[in-house]
Specification:
86 residues; mainly alpha; 48% helix; flat
Length: 86
């Protein structure tokens, strides 16, 4: 959407929400499921469960190739390219 996550939440409250309450931004409906899954892995509370930068870059490269082939799917399982054509 291009909107800033948690834009209406004061910084101190946001810090507590993210660290203590493990609050994370929500993705808009129709977001590519691969991106949602990657972001969720990056936001793991336990740092040892987060992907390495190398893994993140490889995953993004893979997603780019899927996108170019029309195979990047949104959360509803609809190809992003197909949904844009409608």
């Amino acid at each position: 959407t291009g909107e800033k996550a948690f834009k209406r939440v004061p910084v101190m409250q946001l810090t507590a929400d993210v660290t203590a309450r493990r609050r994370r931004p929500e993705f808009p409906l129709g977001s590519p499921k691969q991106i949602v899954e990657l972001a969720s892995r990056c936001w793991e509370h336990d740092p040892s469960k987060r992907p390495s930068f190398k893994t993140i870059m490889e995953t993004i490269d893979d997603m780019q190739q899927l996108h170019e082939q029309g195979l990047l799917f949104n959360q509803a399982g609809i190809s992003q390219n197909m949904s844009q054509d409608r």
